[in-house]
Amino acid sequence: MSESVDSRTKTLNFNIGVLGHVDSGKTSLARALSSTASTAAFDKNPQSRERGITLDLGFSSFTVDFPDHLRDGEGQQPYDNLQFTLVDCPGHASLIRTIIGGAQIIDLMMLVVDVVKGVQTQTAECLLIGELTCPGMVVILNKIDLLPPNKRQSAIEKMTKRLHKTLENTRFKDCPVISVAAKPGGPEAPDTEEPQGVSELIELLKKQTYLPKRNPRGDLLMAVDHCFSIRGQGTVMTGTILQGSLAINDTVEIPALKVTKKIKSVQMFRKPVSGAMQGDRVGVCVTQFDPKLLERGVVCTPGSLRTLYAAVISVRKIGYFKGSLSTRAKFHITVGHETVMARVTFFGLPPLGASDTQPPPTQPCSLETPFTFDREYFYHDEYVSGQGEGSSGPDPEQWALLEFERPVTCPSLCLVIGSKLDTDIHANACRLAFQGRLLQGFEDKAYAETSLPHLQIYKTKYKEGQVERVTDDYTVIGRNLFKKETNLQLFVGLKVTLSTGETGVIEGGFGQSGKFKIRIQEGLSPETKQLLSSTSKKKGKGGGKGGNEEECKTDSQPVNILLHFKRYIFDPHKKMVQS
């Protein structure tokens, strides 16, 4: 492995996410693989050292010869060498948001599994995040030195079989599985013991590389994971460029601080460069600011990111999540590089004419029906699953309105993940609840007044009352449709249907007890008049005595009044609408 790279050589940077359950040995593996450790690498965080677990996205890298299979048709290689940047993502549960932040920049995932313990809850969550964000994976069975030598091979084979079974319904079903001992003897053992299987792993990683699609065009977006100042030079931000490119003398914005800064110098793994592009891992020195103000966050082309108070997203429930997804509930929403609490409102296409063709679950952005303010949508009390009673199809297409507890800064169309991170981390349950894409953001703080009334989500309302008596052939008095205190003026002019088939219009109130008058435009049919007169006669016969009135109610069929209307949930006037 060559470590000294001449600054004129061209290096392809390939980002590998190292994910896995806490204590599966990810950091030891990264250390065994690496030669050059970058800023945040290898548990520098004092809190992490005490606990012996990784607290932030650690980064380190090593360089290898450029693999033959990536040469072009004429045998020319577009780069001089290949640099693997290892992104060591925290495995412990409370920091799942950090993993989601890191997963957006990963070209390949290494899932590290403790060969003795197998797949655990966090391993499954890592798999899910991988499925949402990453095209390929390599599984590493670590700590094989803990298996008794005479049973080692059979234990490895058994665990490999079990993993292939776990993965068979995911996009990683045929991924390679390799066994290693990254730190024989455990973390406390002296470094004299050679790691086992690591050179074979490097060869496997080289085989798995591809030329990631990198695009230097478009607005710059860089995820910053570390920040420090150098006296007399400025403030250095290290991170990975998620999109676009940067160069010395460019002006960049730090949205969290609402400031712009000029780039003074750029380094890639401690070597000065004039610029960098999407996928590169860089240190950028800008004019001085207090590094404590920005430990993690994003840097971008001035004005390119939006700060949102609310958003509409496409939404798809994550199959392993066991809870319900209810409207008005609060979830942790990870969007861009931030995690914030938000209240969720689910909605879908109106029940008739709903789309029956569904996009595949792993492609959250390929919605069949584009979201638009010109369409009406139907309010859902909770996320509607296609796996309901008697049905086993894919989930119907639906969306969610997210109302953030504090504004978030993010690029458009970014991945959104909703989770319940307050669930007990020791409970054997997946906490990732739903995923989607950001489709529409609301940048106005007063979005509830300015934007939401244009979002036409409606609820249907059904009310049922009874005809009390007939006034004439065209007028009846109704009861039990409204409470005494209801403002009947709101309902004047709405259409109603009698259970005998006639339609009428509410004309107004009648007396003080919530009764009302209905005008039947076509007039009552003779059968209805007969039915209503027999009902009232029976009532009359009883002379108002309780017992008989009860009898006449039960042995006569009352005529019901049905009122159907819809109400738009964000209409400030709370109007009732009938089609």
TrEMBL record:
Keywords assigned by UniProt, alphabetized: Cytoplasm, Elongation factor, GTP-binding, Hydrolase, Methylation, Nucleotide-binding, Nucleus, Phosphoprotein, Protein biosynthesis
Cofactors that this protein relies on: Mg(2+); Mn(2+)
Source organism phylogeny: Eukaryota, Metazoa, Chordata, Craniata, Vertebrata
Localization per record: Cytoplasm; Nucleus
Protein name (Swiss-Prot/TrEMBL): Selenocysteine-specific elongation factor
Provenance organism: Xyrichtys novacula (Pearly razorfish)
Gene3D superfamilies according to UniProt: P-loop containing nucleotide triphosphate hydrolases (3.40.50.300), Translation factors (2.40.30.10)
Superkingdom of origin: Eukaryota
Disordered: annotated segments: 529-555
Domain Tr-type G: 11-217
Reactions it catalyzes: GTP + H2O = GDP + phosphate + H(+)
Classification via NCBIfam families: small_GTP
Pfam families to which the protein is assigned, alphabetical: eEFSec_4th, euk_SelB_III, GTP_EFTU, GTP_EFTU_D2
Family matches, as PROSITE patterns: G_TR_2 (PS51722)
Any single biological process term in GO: selenocysteine incorporation
Cellular component terms (Gene Ontology): cytoplasm; nucleus
Record GO terms (molecular function): GTP binding; GTPase activity; translation elongation factor activity
Function: Translation factor required for the incorporation of the rare amino acid selenocysteine encoded by UGA codons. Replaces the eRF1-eRF3-GTP ternary complex for the insertion of selenocysteine directed by the UGA codon. Insertion of selenocysteine at UGA codons is mediated by SECISBP2 and EEFSEC: SECISBP2 (1) specifically binds the SECIS sequence once the 80S ribosome encounters an in-frame UGA codon and (2) contacts the RPS27A/eS31 of the 40S ribosome before ribosome stalling.
